[in-house]
């Protein structure tokens, strides 16, 4: 990079309000001058005092004998016996201080709680939260200072076998631990299995092509797949690809099959529409594509403003999810052979399975029950399988028995089967709850009780009852606003989620302003760092410099909405942390994609997935919760998810941003702190992940 950001150093940048503009040249001169002043050595400032916002008195009382390594990290200054004993006293002093701070904080909080009145309680709770954040920040600093020079140590690179590794998904380990073979592909997050290191890209990794070119052509070295796997059989859309030297080219048509356009057209006709362009008007916006192949179905429908979420099992090689994400399409690892998906009930307008490898007649119909749970009233279940072939496989008695079970069970779920065409069958879920009451007495499956009908389960065991019927969100897709009006919820719709129109409007306005400022801030940095790549005629325009975006604390999905309002060609994975309020139903009902997730666990996706990771308020949310993981665990997971040259934006309290900046240096990220003029208590931390190239053996 021609002008990298100063690693771990505040550039003195001010983040303009929505009416201010960004003057890159002036800020650049000011940043360089300030950085020279900070870096220039002086007799009163050591490297240690440069890294910390304060200096320890006992460090100034002795002459500096520190030496510096090539990476500007200090060596151990406590080499002599006297200094070693002083270091022990220092550690004892820090531990004693830590205990005293905790005792005083708990005592003060207890006495304060007794004295508060009901009229002032709301203000005190907000103040108490700020005190908690400050306390956690101070304790973190004391704990890190006690580690001495090890705080500055950059993380090592992971071993080569971690190149495409996904924590929580290890088939061999799952079988060794005694999980049954039917659950070996499930997610199993074990305590102590996390290692903090930096995952290197493959030897010949290249920056993905910009959207929309990257939708149809990807670099073969960026994914783990063999030529045999490219040509092997699988789902219908999986074979619509060709290997061409260093690239994989995806074709919408094939000599062996009708093209994906014809297949989509066929589904639309079966529903009673003229073509797939009318799906939007019929109430279909979000689609769950199970075993999506390599995303060709979703890639085609994206041009029709339909949003398809691909889920498939973890695969060590030839992964459907990895290739789909590399194309710039929504995908995540997901298997519901034994557990429910981390989506809210009634979240998708269509569930699609084209030779997806799911045996729907297994598990006593519980797999179909889970598909029904995530399907909205009036939604469609589309199944393409040789099992439904009237002239072929149904001649075998075993196949006929399996097919009859699926048809009968679908009927008991109040699904209406539409006229069949070839191997494709479409069912329409009932729009009326009364259908369940009209079934024969004692019919199975029964409706879930209110206690068992959890709106957003988090990897709970599959249930054997029909869910979603207790939800206030039971609204047929025909009665929902069509896209894009769906994303703008009215007051009646907001009341379902307990959100006031004023809060929603303020959130929307704030994010529209923030996205404009983000873009004005990032654009000059990108153009200055990447004026021209080899093979590019001109620098890529700012509107498509990002494609895959991860919002780690999505709240109402305002960041997603603002990006689309600004005309950015992106899709956003909206994550709702399990440790905060559950706003996932609202996000999904707006026509976005999202998932529930615990950020103390690895996210279910492959390394190098996202061009940008955004986290607003996440550090505050994590630090006030009981810790099962460290901030370093969180940051190393972000690094795993981020593509080389990808961007990270943190927005949080000033004290937590300082902690985050220190951690960014350990991950070798280029980072700068940006002030927010409209909020003196918050800061932005903008980081970029360098492109470390692995040397071939």
Task: Describe it.
- Helix content is 34%, strand content 15%.
- Mean pLDDT is 80; it is low at 1-81, 116-126, 144-150, 252-257, 529-534 and 538-543.
- By secondary structure, the chain is an alpha/beta fold.
- It has helices at residues 24-39, 47-51, 57-60, 81-115, 121-145, 171-176, 213-216, 227-231, 260-271, 296-302, 320-326, 366-374, 397-412, 434-437, 491-496, 501-529, 558-565, 584-589, 618-623, 631-641, 654-666; strands spanning 13-15, 217-219, 241-244, 247-250, 286-290, 307-312, 331-333, 348-354, 375-384, 415-417, 424-429, 548-551, 571-577, 593-597, 610-616, 642-653, 670-676, 682-688.
- An eight-stranded mixed sheet has the order 1-17-18-16-15-12-13-14, with helices on both faces.
- It starts with 12 loop residues before the first strand and ends in a 9-residue tail after the last strand.
> Gap between N and C termini, in Å?
25 Å
The largest sheet has its strands arranged as: 1-17-18-16-15-12-13-14
Please give the radius of gyration in angstroms: 27 Å
Structural class: alpha/beta
User: Percent of residues in helical segments?
Assistant: 25-40%
Shape designation? globular
- Tell me the β content: 5-15%
How many β-strand runs?
A: 18
For the sheet with most strands, the description reads: 8 strands, mixed
Average pLDDT for all residues: 80
Number of helices: 21
Low-confidence stretches: 1-81, 116-126, 144-150, 252-257, 529-534, 538-543
